[in-house]
Amino acid sequence: LATSMYEKAEDYPDAVKMSALLVEVGPRDGTAYATFGHALRLNSELDRADAALKRAAELGVTTAQINEDFARLFIARKDDKAALPYLQEVLRQDSKRQDIFFLQAQAAERSGDPTLAEHSYEQGLSLGGVHIAETGALLRLYFSGKQTDQATQLAKTQLASLPPAPEERLQFAATLDDLNQKDLAMQAWRALLQVQPASEQGHTRVARLLLDSGNAGGAEEEAVAGLSAIPNSPLLHIVKADAEQHQGRIYEARHTLQ
User: Fold this and answer.
1) pLDDT tens-digit profile of 109-132?
2) Global model pTM greater than 0.70
3) Is 15 left (phi over 0), alpha (psi -120 to 50) or beta?
4) Helical H runs in 77-181?
């Protein structure tokens, strides 16, 4: 109990000291070694943690926590492939661990197993909540694997359920931009502007996307709308001038930039 209290307070050195006492009192107690190894891992003492956890396993400990500790040890040592069997065992013991599904997905990506990564992200996301970074990671996997229909459906589902927080809408719009999904990105930037009408980045990206699609008039209108909210925006003045130039209005474009 005392060790757990130290861990919750993120006082890992004292958690190590307290759990070391448990090992001294019970040198044949696997649970004591598991607790000691867990505290050592949290305190970034990887070699000592490894030894303690191995001793716990020798003494018969097979909990989800010890498997998670072994997995996180391997990940900390940049050995993602070795971590995967332990993560799979954690999920076998508790299939509702969304954080472990996401951790397994990341480890699978880094170890070159996109199939497992996709499955892990899918399972994790199916457990609910808004997870923009993980959705973006799964979109990247889908697009890189030429699974365009699945990617488009996932993006549309996320767009329909975006939370009102501007930060999360901005993050998703930027992700779609990075993936060069212009139509979806346009929808995401407009969704940002719904909750943050004075977003310089939102207005600029919508205007740029319109301009890139050949709609110079629409781009100019968007830039003007943005400038009504952010009149001193250099980015919006530049995109407005570019839109004017595309429409053959060279002198107006020069005036806009003055």
Assistant:
1) 999 999 999 999 999 999 999 999
2) yes
3) alpha
4) 80-93, 98-110, 114-125, 132-144, 148-160, 166-178
